[in-house]
Design goal:
InterPro entries: KR_dom (IPR057326), NAD(P)-bd_dom_sf (IPR036291), Sc_DH/Rdtase_CS (IPR020904), SDR (IPR050259), SDR_fam (IPR002347). Keywords: Oxidoreductase. This is D-beta-hydroxybutyrate dehydrogenase. It is an enzyme of class 1 (oxidoreductase). The protein is an alpha/beta fold and about 260 residues long. It folds into two domains: about 200 residues, NAD(P)-binding Rossmann-like Domain (Rossmann fold, 3-Layer(aba) Sandwich), CATH 3.40.50.720; about 35 residues, no CATH class. The protein is built from eight helices and seven strands, in the order βαβαβαβαβαβαααβ. The protein has a seven-stranded parallel sheet, with helices on both faces. Strand 2, helix 2 and strand 3 form a beta-alpha-beta unit. Helix 1 crosses helix 8 and helix 4 packs parallel to helix 5.
Length: about 260
């Protein structure tokens, strides 16, 4: 049976890579985002169905997104909540609007998406995957909104795993490190401007102390997502898979000894 897969943030980055991979293996894929152009381009490339809407809006899910998915597919077997965005700035520097935007794009979008899709996932015995971050596990500098929202995703995932596991729904999260996405490219810009680096040099520098010494590609993260959403992961729920090139294994206080 062909699976019905819903991917938020599906127009670019990790969400787009997941759409390519899963559509390529025969799944029926629905990609959701706020910008029509990248969604439509990817839909033309992969055969996915593009749905323009705000994943953080319960009204958008109720009135438009969910009815279209159910009308066309009749079921949802997998939800990949990949919508996300910035949330930069130390706490004292953030405005109320910036704080709300960080929560909407990174946490509220996942909440609204999971809540809307849960009845269909219960009916299908399906699963969901939240695309979190190593910022879900530790704090980077001047990224209060992003770090807080990404930490919240882990709590959301665990709550769903506990409450809906008895109904047959699996819930997991993936925590990538640096990934060469458009959002990460944008984060490299201050480093490039300050040091005169190319984009490749900036990525190399931010990964200097990462054991694998490089960022991931979106396709690599998509492969990990595919596994967590597959029957091969049927006993895995409530889990957080870290895909960071080994960054989390580094004992930061010992970095000074590296050059000895």
């Amino acid at each position: 049976m062909t699976r019905s897969v819903v991917i938020t943030g599906g127009g670019t980055g990790i969400g787009a890579a997941c759409a390519r991979l899963l559509a390529g293996q025969g799944d029926r894929v629905f990609i959701i985002g706020r910008r029509a152009a990248p969604l439509q381009a990817l839909a033309a490339e992969t055969g996915a169905t593009a749905l323009v809407g705000d994943a953080a809006s319960g009204d958008s899910w109720r009135d438009a997104l969910l009815p279209q998915i159910m009308r066309q597919a009749g079921r949802i077997d997998c939800l990949i909540a990949s919508a996300g965005g910035m949330g930069l700035g130390a706490l004292g520097d953030m405005t109320d609007d910036e704080w709300r935007q960080a929560l909407d794009s990174n946490l509220n979008s996942a909440f609204a998406s999971v809540r809307a899709c849960l009845p269909a996932l219960v009916n299908s015995g399906g699963n969901l995957l939240l695309v979190a971050s190593i910022a879900s596990l530790a704090a980077g500098p001047a990224a209060c909104g992003y770090v807080t929202a990404k930490h919240g995703l882990i709590g959301l995932m665990r709550s769903v795993a506990r409450d809906y596991g008895p109904l047959g729904v699996r819930a997991n999260a993936i925590c990538p490190g640096w990934v060469t996405t458009p959002m990460a490219d944008e984060e490299m810009q201050p480093l490039m401007a300050a040091h005169g680096w190319t984009l490749e040099q900036a990525y190399r520098e931010v990964c200097r102390d990462v054991p694998l010494r490089r960022p991931a590609s979106p396709a690599e993260i998509a492969e990990a997502c595919r596994f967590l959403c597959s029957p091969q992961a049927s006993i895995i729920t409530g889990a957080t898979l870290v895909a960071d090139g080994g960054a989390g294994a580094v004992d930061v206080p010992t970095l000074a000894f590296t050059s000895l």
